[in-house]
Amino acid sequence: MSIGQGTLRVTFAYPAFTRLYRTSSPRLQVDGVEQPVRTWGTHTIAVGAGPHRVRAWVVPDSGTDFGVAEEAVVVEFGARTELSYRAPHFHGAHGRIKVLALSGT
Q: Which domains occur in the chain, in start order?
């Protein structure tokens, strides 16, 4: 498998009216490799077709990382798999990853 046979499109969101997230940023790993994600919003990552393990969490400016969520996903050849990561309401709680859609590119 070569990189670029498919894509993961991940949208990072956090609860409204929560000050903690103004000074924090999300992180993303695909198959144990950290990806270049440092801002909230939507990011597209090129990946090889096949199964992948996705892990996301929150890194505050100070304190301990939190909000870990993991999900197994499959990316089809030439397709995009869309995911959403929702940070938790409370520090120390787990986040949530949902598979939203699979589509051709």
A: 6-104 (2.60.40)
